[in-house]
Amino acid sequence: MELYSKIKGVGSYVPAHVVSNHMLEQTLDTSHEWIVSRTGIEERRISSDTESSSYMAIEAARKAIDAAGVSLDEIDMVVVGTTTSTYVMPSTACEVAAGLGIAGATAFDVAAACSGFIYAVSVADKFIRTAEARCVLTIGVDRYSRLCNPEDRNTSILFGDGAGAAIIKLSDTPGIEYTELGSDGGRSNILTAKHQERLPYTTDGDNAYLQMQGQDVFKTAVSKFVDLIESVQTKKGVHLDDIDMLIPHQANIRIINSVAKRYKLPQAKVFLNVQKYGNTSAASVVLALDEAMQSGQIKEGSRVLMLAFGGGLTWGSILATF
């Protein structure tokens, strides 16, 4: 008998502190109009010192668990997509499991930058389909505001913080129809952030802030989104006309619009919330998914294609029916 996995509940968390473009005008050589015209971003949420990645992940997870109607003892795996763990060890996944009171479950992090949630869900899907798990808590969470140089307008205007979670369960009927993952470590230099060297090995002048070659990232992201869409169409036989909603990684509205224009997608089929949250990295896709579900734009029976691209370089897609 073939086994299926399905997304059963979704939840999200964003910090209360809002940083608008007008606030950034006070410290950076930029303007609200400049930021909006180039990114579509109007504001972003910035975490406080007490809102760690694990804290935000736990808050999002509680909402997803409630939405799915599952008990904690049903969860046999926790997979967290993040590149902003508080500790080298324990993993954020272990912190989440402990914080929720889940004992004995498999728990680990996936470091795939902005593709982290897509990677986490794909891993969960494979474990369920091979009967190695029945109920998986997947999370995308990042605090990239802590990785950005506050004096660098090329990066600090882009990123915000947040978390999103989804419960993936064994299902009698198809839910997650197709996933695809990919990477190209040979081009990692266009989007990178170093670990700060630990004493006594600190190198003077070593820049541990996020570094980004914006134009290269833009072009590669558009190219990979197109590749992922073409792959779904050729390998799965699902045309974009057959989906109800496209949820792309919310990095830059020009990237999203470029892809939508290429495929002549109506605005109603492409979900956007980049204007409110900026680029929340691994949380981006699942934050958008939760908002789309809460607003009723995705409901039971909806077919959704999710896409992400991030540092690594990494990319991935999920085709799912709800």
UniProtKB/TrEMBL annotation:
Instruction: Just give the chief location class.
Output: cytoplasm
Q: In which pathway does it act?
A: Lipid metabolism; fatty acid biosynthesis
Where the record annotates domain Beta-ketoacyl-[acyl-carrier-protein] synthase III N-terminal, the positions are: 108-185
Question: Does Secreted appear among the keywords?
Answer: no
CDD domains hit by this protein: KAS_III
Q: Where is the active site?
A: C114, H249, N279
Localized where? Cytoplasm
Q: What is its EC number?
A: 2.3.1.180
Question: Which InterPro entries does the entry link to?
Answer: ACP_syn_III_C, ACP_syn_III_N, FabH, Thiolase-like
Q: Which residue ranges are recorded for the region named ACP-binding? A: 250-254
Under the heading Pfam families, the entry gives: ACP_syn_III, ACP_syn_III_C
Q: Does the keyword Lipid metabolism apply?
A: yes
Tell me the keywords, alphabetical order.
Acyltransferase, Cytoplasm, Fatty acid biosynthesis, Fatty acid metabolism, Lipid biosynthesis, Lipid metabolism, Multifunctional enzyme, Transferase
Record-annotated Beta-ketoacyl-[acyl-carrier-protein] synthase III C-terminal domain positions: 235-320
Quote the catalytic activity from the record: malonyl-[ACP] + acetyl-CoA + H(+) = 3-oxobutanoyl-[ACP] + CO2 + CoA
HAMAP family attached to this UniProt entry: FabH
Q: Per the similarity annotation, which family is this?
A: Belongs to the thiolase-like superfamily. FabH family.
User: Subunit details for this protein?
Assistant: Homodimer.
* Record text about domains: The last Arg residue of the ACP-binding site is essential for the weak association between ACP/AcpP and FabH.
Role according to the record:
Catalyzes the condensation reaction of fatty acid synthesis by the addition to an acyl acceptor of two carbons from malonyl-ACP. Catalyzes the first condensation reaction which initiates fatty acid synthesis and may therefore play a role in governing the total rate of fatty acid production. Possesses both acetoacetyl-ACP synthase and acetyl transacylase activities. Its substrate specificity determines the biosynthesis of branched-chain and/or straight-chain of fatty acids.
Q: What is this protein called?
A: Beta-ketoacyl-[acyl-carrier-protein] synthase III
- Gene source species: Kangiella taiwanensis
